[in-house]
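=== Structure Prediction Worksheet ===
Name of assembly: unnamed complex
Input type: mixed (protein and possibly other molecules)
Chain count: two
Listed entries:
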Amino acid sequence: MSEVEEIIREIMKGGDRKVKEIIEAARREAEEIIKKAEKDALEIAEKEARIIRETIANRMMDREKRRLIEDKVRLKDVKIKRLREILYEKIEKVIGGKDERWSYEKILYRLLRDAVLEIGEENIVVSANKRDLEFIRTHKSELETKLEEDVGRKVNLSLGDPVDITGGVICATPSGDKIFNASIDSRVDEVMKKMSAFIVRRLGMVSTARFRSLIRQMFEKIREKIKIKDALGRSLELGPIDSVESIIGGETRIDAICKESGGGIIMVFATLSQATKERVQRFRESIEKYEASVGAKKSKTVFIAFSGVESKDVMDVLRESDMYLLTRKELIDLSKKVGMEM
Amino acid sequence: MSVGALVKVAMAEREVREKIEKAKVEAQQIIEKARSRANEILKEDNIERLKNELVEKYRREIEKEFSERKMLEDEELERLGLITDEELEDVAEILLEVILSE
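=== Predicted Assembly ===
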């Protein structure tokens, strides 16, 4: 190649390089322009979409909350009403002398004494239902003597009007300035109010979150080895437990992961409802995922189903899966053993 | 260098200048095209389309989140429906004891 040809070749090469640079720079700039536009467009769209998202979420939340609250309140009311009915049936048996464990006469006297003590006056007007008024009328002097001994002062009882109460008495001073309601009905209301937390817990009328929290607290309280029978009649040894955690979210649900002092890991699933094949399967899959991600092996699995099992088949599935089953009964036993009211 | 050689070099240089000028025009076109595309991207109907896609995505996420929550809440409702008279009897017995005891 001659010198001139070499020069021309270099000029052409330099020109090609420059052309390439110009085009590449333009392409880069074009890419930037498009990227920026896409980013800006997405930002504007996201801003608007987020507002709509909030509206959708709020609307769904309101709808769900309303549905849940309405259904829960309705069902709770039905069950509490039924509980009162059963309770009153039992009280009627006591009053009618059909429950040998209780003497209604003694109960009536005690309620009368409490009212007399509370009012603290000599003259007391006693109101009760017809049956109890009749009893008080026929045993008046006997009651007055016993009251005198018990309260340490003279007591004059006079009979008031019959009132529509199940049992017990409503006492007042003759002027009516002091009244004390010692009726059975008032006791029922008072006790049901005072024990409402116990009632909802014992009947599993708590929220799922509260239930899980109670389960975790219960396992945390296992400070020494405890032996119980599960609902399938198998012996289950638990504890002592060092720590309890839970994994809930996405597809994984393990309500309590209890680490025992001896190094064992107890996996717990807890539902207020029943053990179903689907729930057992979900629990099994959650354990597999947990074991794969953490590299730890469970030593025991406990399936807590407050409402029992859906069918006998589920019991077989639990046995095959080597899962212990605890229902309401076993939970109450366990809670007593760890000193916690369930 | 001979005159012939100088002419050849000058022609080559002219050719290169022309190529560069052409490239500059092409580059301008590329940028213009991109600007035009950017305008398209930022147009209201495109943003509306993007927004709808996002809303749909968010809706699916919310529905998934709610279905998980609903599953847990359904357990609460199921429980309430599963409370038996036998369980109520047990609680009533405890309440009776408290109500009638001193």
